[in-house]
Design brief:
Length: about 325
């Protein structure tokens, strides 16, 4: 295990699950503590609105000094103008002293995943079929802008040579891809393309709502494909966004976790979804589930408290779950 991440519910600010001050205090607590080495926020626009991700991370950067600052995942990346975004993300990396960690994804395409995905695409002037090529071209274009003067002649963007400033402090500034391809629900060619996309374009892989067995199989496929493409698969990082709720009463912890997730993601979480998404119950229950992912190659568990009392869950985790997790990865580097 390479680290432990804390996912802060920046959408929860909109419905009272967390306040701005609580979110910033939790980030500061994670930064000063001994357990976390990264802090994450989510991203969304119309389908799943929230306090905007880059702005949230900029605020968090002013309250922290050590932890990496990530977004899991930047669902609006295919909707964003890449030149403007490249400047925004490079600025975040500069302001944070080189701590920005970008994970991009395609975003929601159906109402099954909650929210109004169709309205979001329509408002952005983008069709669903454009999401994949926009994501792929956007990654290449952002990297080119960060590397130096560049001109571009692509499918969606074209311009003569420009030099973008500032450049990120990190060189290279990492870009991960967040995805959860499902071979049972998509054609084989699309599944293979999703695996190849991570293997050839990304510095790491992030996923969610997947069983440990599925996670391990996909991660093995990504690394095999990366090696076949001549990349160093050992340099890539795997992460999973896991929802947890700690409590002595397993049924009560699961029930609160469901209420939180249903509100947060505008959906009705089935038992299957809850079982695939995280763990709810005693610290031993949650730890046992995380261990199943670690045994299958997970480098970075990113934990979100599926709770309407984030500080209380953090206090309980600090006393019980986090010390056990830390033993599995060693100490967090000092500031």
């Amino acid at each position: 295990m390479k680290g432990i991440g804390l996912s802060l519910p920046n959408r929860g600010i909109l419905f009272g699950a967390i306040s701005v001050s609580e979110m910033l205090e939790l980030a500061e607590f994670a930064d000063k503590g001994e357990f976390f080495d990264s802090v994450w926020v989510g991203d969304g626009l119309i389908a799943k609105p929230r306090v905007e991700a880059v702005a949230s991370l900029a605020a968090i950067s002013s309250r922290t000094e050590r932890v990496k600052l990530g977004v899991c995942c930047l669902a609006t990346f295919p909707l964003r103008q890449p030149v403007v975004f490249a400047a925004q993300w490079a600025s975040l990396d500069v302001l944070s002293g080189g701590r920005a960690l970008l994970a991009v994804c395609l975003g929601a395409t159906t109402e099954r995943s909650g929210g109004n995905a169709a309205a979001e695409l329509t408002a952005a002037g983008i069709t669903s079929r454009e999401r994949v090529p926009r994501l792929e071209e956007g990654i290449r274009l952002v990297r080119a802008l960060w590397n130096g003067p560049t001109s571009w002649d692509g499918q969606f963007w074209s311009f003569p040579e420009v030099s973008l400033e500032p450049k990120p402090i990190q060189d290279p500034c990492p870009i991960w891809i967040a995805s959860n391809p499902d071979p049972a629900r998509m054609p084989e060619r699309r599944y293979r393309a999703a695996i190849e996309r991570v293997a050839t374009l990304a510095d790491g892989w992030q996923t969610a709502v997947t069983t440990p067995e599925e996670f391990g199989r996909k991660w093995d496929e990504i690394r095999t494909a990366a090696d076949a493409a001549g990349r160093d698969a050992s340099a890539m990082t795997s992460s999973a966004h896991l929802m947890i709720n700690l409590g002595d009463d397993r049924a009560a912890a699961r029930a609160e976790g469901k209420r939180f997730l249903d509100t947060y993601y505008s959906m009705d979480s089935s038992d299957e979804i809850l079982d695939r998404w995280g763990a709810f119950g005693t610290p031993d229950d949650v730890l046992a589930r995380i261990d199943q992912y670690l045994e299958r190659g997970l480098d970075l568990p990113i934990l979100r408290f599926a709770s309407f009392d984030q500080p209380q869950q953090m206090a309980l985790a600090e006393q019980t779950l986090l010390p056990e997790l830390q033993r599995r990865r060693g100490p967090v580097p000092a500031c």
